[in-house]
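Narrative summary of target 7.
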Amino acid sequence: MLITKAIFERKISEFDTQNCVIEGIAIMSEDEFEEFSNNLLEDRDFIIDRKEEMFIDSIGQIHGLLALNMESGDGILIDSQGHKYARYTAFMPNIKPYIEQQISMVAEQIIKEAAENTSNGSWAIYFDEIEESHGIVIKENNGIGTLLLDELTSRDEIAEIEVLDDCFDMTIYLDYCNNLDEEIKPSQNMNM
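Modeled conformation, tokenized:
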């Protein structure tokens, strides 16, 4: 049985979709999401704290905040337009796999670049570089950084990762590095 959730419109000739940019993610448990989704017009601290992330840009794209149920995978995209509550909302059923896929692709590219370019296993990727190269914004407590950090940490290539004010400072296992200095390369005889 294939079960999902949907919002149905009556007798519409076409869907009026709009391009949206997810600027931040409020990661929620099942209970938190349920409470939020049943009281959308209530003032919320997580919306108040992130009002600047919700706007319509010069080309008409809606920049919003995604409330994400980490258990069910459903989400609600919010554009508060400066208000303290979810003034405009869009239900996003099963959005979590899409978010995870996008985060995974960014992590893969970051690791690939690090492995190809580090000469000693050490690599830093700055948040503004991530935004410029991959189109995702990493800010303190915006949820996207948390998901990306979790994904990077789970990768076999990463020996260590530290979050600094403006970057992820990583150490890549030397076996994955392609451009090591000669004095750092692991000895091929050690594996025999």
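The chain is about 30% helix and 25% strand.
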